[in-house]
Amino acid sequence: xxxxxxxRILLADDHFIVRSGxxxxxxxxxxxxxxxxxxxxxxxxxxxxxxxxxxxxxxxRMPGRSGNAAIEEIRRQCPDARILVLTAYSGDEDIHKALxxxxxGYVLKxxxxxxxxxxxxxxxxxxxxxxxxxxxxxxxxxxxxxxxxREIEVLREIARGLANKEIAHKLAITEHTVKDHLKxxxxxxxxxxxxxxxxxxxxxxxxxx
Amino acid sequence: xxxxxxxRILLADDHFIVRSGxxxxxxxxxxxxxxxxxxxxxxxxxxxxxxxxxxxxxxxRMPGRSGNAAIEEIRRQCPDARILVLTAYSGDEDIHKALxxxxxGYVLKxxxxxxxxxxxxxxxxxxxxxxxxxxxxxxxxxxxxxxxxREIEVLREIARGLANKEIAHKLAITEHTVKDHLKxxxxxxxxxxxxxxxxxxxxxxxxxx
DNA sequence: CGCCGCATCCCTCTTTCGAGGGAACAGACA
DNA sequence: TGTCTGTTCCCTCGAAAGAGGGATGCGGCG
Lengths: 209, 209
Prior knowledge:
2 copies of one chain form a homodimer. By secondary structure, chain A is of the alpha/beta class. Helices cover 53% and strands 12% of the residues of chain A. The interface between A and B is large, with 38 and 38 residues.
């Protein structure tokens, strides 16, 4: 990419209004140009591969294929892809997963142009861009152990209000095992009751309702 | 308001990007003009009273005074105020409260210009504007009894993971009473376990995490 | 005035939770 | 190879939850 050329941007957000705002904001800078817009994850992947933009600006919460799945797919097909995540804050889990999947930067939807435009330029240049407060929160996050797949599965059923016995039946394991998973969950999340485990997990973005 | 004059609009949303999108969208229609922008509830009230716009376009989720509180205050000081709520869907409780507080219309943030501009015109003309699917959901909602103030208070503590005994101590009532409230909560929400009560209440917007 | 909803209190009873142990086996990893 | 983690199973036991009753004041509303 030559310095003289404009930075070509792909937008992906399911809200038309947000896309409009981004277009207005980005076009206020003559060095930047929006070359494509997607309204869901699948479209984002497709348009990325077709246009090969310098930066992809992705929301994580989208219908169809989630933002994170889209990031993984794009990076799989195009390992050099430069992706900047733009989303409303909703727990650290999503952010962490997005960065793990290969996103280079992260900005909050509450950002103004003064925050967003430098982030776009930085990511277009291949640099990382993480706001300081987000970076520190992610560092703190590592204090919590990650839940295993099975534990998350159990937690999801707990959130739905099922008793241990019902969960046991549904997952085809004994009630004892369900209790053991619950013990692990409570320990890892540093909580003492199943209800608290659910709210803590929702707040951290581990499960959704 | 004369028909020949432009419809004067107040925007209130905490996301700069969303405000930009709305401005771009609204200015694409020569009959509409944004006369003021607020980024929180208090500012929305202040700017409404100063500019007396024909329509106020408010988000419900805002820092400081909530969108609903802002609606109430505006309607208290100016009963003719025409307010259109624009928000991401997050349970029916907020929508219901907003309409009760005096909002004339409601549109989802996922709307396109084709949905939003007619809504603005309708509300500016003093007409109600509720999408059909929202209206039917609100009608269904009445099948659920409303929780009393005390019950919501108890439910909030349950969500935080407190045991009945702890809740009793915190609210200065006996554990028996807590259980009685819980019984009412379970009955009204049509659920059978405290954990399920929490998730159901969160989904309906009765409590937040 | 009586009725109803709310909040408060009390009881018993069975089931479920959650903490405390121990143990087996598979796969990953050094 | 040994070790570690995840998953599964097992046990006991006290505390908590939830269903079932009944009862008292207090306020609003017809």
